[in-house]
Design brief:
Shape: globular
Strand content: 15-25%
Helix content: 40-55%
Structural class: alpha/beta
Number of domains: 2
Largest sheet: 6 strands, mixed
Order of helices and strands: HEHEHEHEEHEHEHEHEHEHHEH
CATH topology of the largest domain: D-Maltodextrin-Binding Protein, domain 2
CATH architecture of the largest domain: 3-Layer(aba) Sandwich
Strand order of the largest sheet: 2-1-3-10-4-11
CATH class of the largest domain: Alpha Beta
CATH superfamily of the largest domain: Bordetella uptake gene, domain 1
Length: 322
Amino acid sequence: MRIKALVVVASLLISPLAAAQAWPSKSLRLITPYPAGSGTDTLLRAMGNEMNKAWGQTVVVDNRPGASTMIAAQTCARAPADGYTLCMLDRSLSTLPHLYRKLPFDPDRDFTPITLLANLIAALAVSPNVPANSVKELIDYARANPGKLNYSTPGEGTPPHLQMEWIKQKYGINIVHVPFKSPPEIVRTLVAGDIQVTIFGLINLLGPIRAGKAKALALSGTGRSPLLPDVPTMTETGTQPPNNQQTWFALYGPAGLPKDVVDKVYRETVRMFSQPDFRKERLLGQGWEPRASTGEELARFMKADRAAAAELVRMSGAKVQD
C-alpha cells in the first residue's frame, strides 16, 4: 500500500509538468482585430502555418474587427489563460486608455505580453484625382479647399486617425474623417476618388500605388522603404508625430498565461522571423519592420509607448469619449 501511495503522489507531482511540456496538445486560436484579407490577417495566417509546422497543431485565425480594435481585445481578455487563445493587438492598446473613460478591459491587468512583432509601414496616400504629388502640395490644396477633402482610417481612435488629426492641427487644415471597418473599402473608395486621402498600411495600398491608381506621398518607418524607395518618409515630410511613433503589432494572451507558453511562443516567433524566406517575403516584402522581443521587453516598451500615446492624443485634439 505504501508503494502504491508513493506512486500516486509521484504521478500527481509529475502530471502538471507533463501537461506543460505537452503544450500545445490541441488547436490554437489567434485573434486579430482586422478582417480576413487585411495585411495583419495575412501575416497572422503565415505565422499560424509556421506554428503548425513546428508544433503539429492546427492554428485558427479568428477575425474580430470593429470598435477600434476593442472587440478583439475584449475577446482575448476574457479567454481562458490556458495558452490556446492568443491575440495580435496593435498600438490602439496604448491610445485607447487616453480616448475612453471606460474600456471593456484593463490594458495592464487583462493581458500577458508575449512578444513585439513588427512595425507596419503606413502610407499617406491620395486618390489620383487629387491635384497633389507631394505632402506640401496636399497641404496647400487642403488649405485652399477647407472641408472639400475626406480621409479614411480603420476607425476612431486608431493610430492613423490620431496621426491625421495631428497633421490637421499642425498645418491648420480641414479634412473630414470617414471611418471604415474593412481594408478593401478603404482601398476601393480611395481608388474611386470617393475618399481622397488616407493613412493606411502599405501592404494594402502597394498594388494600387504601383498601378497608378493611388499616389503615395509619404511612408512611415525608420527609413525609406525598399518597396517604394523614391517616396520620402513621414519624418522627412513633417507628417510623423514627435518621438517617431510607429504603428506596432504584438502578440498577447489573457492575463495569467503560463510562462513556459510565453517563452515557447517567443522562441518560435524569433525562429520564423529569422528564416530568410519568411523575413523577405512575409515581413520586409509586405511592408513590415520586424521587431521580435521578449515579453518583459514588450511590457517595458508598452509603458513608454502609453506615455507617448497620451501626448499624441493631446496634440491631435481628439476628444475623450464615454
